[in-house]
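Morning!

This is the sequence you dropped in the shared folder:
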Amino acid sequence: MSGSIHLISVLGIIGKSEYVSYDFDDSGVRAEVRRYPFDPQAIPTDLNDIIEEGFTRDKMHVILDLGNIPWMNSKGLGTLVMLFHVVKDRGGELVLAKPVPEVAKLIETAHLETVFRIFPSLTEAREHLNSLPVPGAD
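The structure's back. Tokens below.
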């Protein structure tokens, strides 16, 4: 199931502002696919485009690595919800990994911890997605 997982690392901090897109192969090895410039004004569109590119490579599940995001506002929460629905509508699952305590608290305050699966590490997020049934398989 590793082959169907796409990882997006969001490096939205000063001096390192970019997205890095990875795919996991069937053996669970992570390979960089592409780097994208980070534009704070275009986050929803950029992330949606990156996820859509993953779908073209048969990546059904998405891990969004939030470990380098020091804060988030309501627009960021709205973006997460929108991305959740984009992935879910395609039959996949979007999970969040490594949110800093401030972001985790915001997600909890907004009662979105019932919507998102949140994992403290990329390994745990990938193991969860690997445990899911293959979409379309009987």
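Headline: The radius of gyration is 14 Å.

More detail when I'm at my desk.
O.
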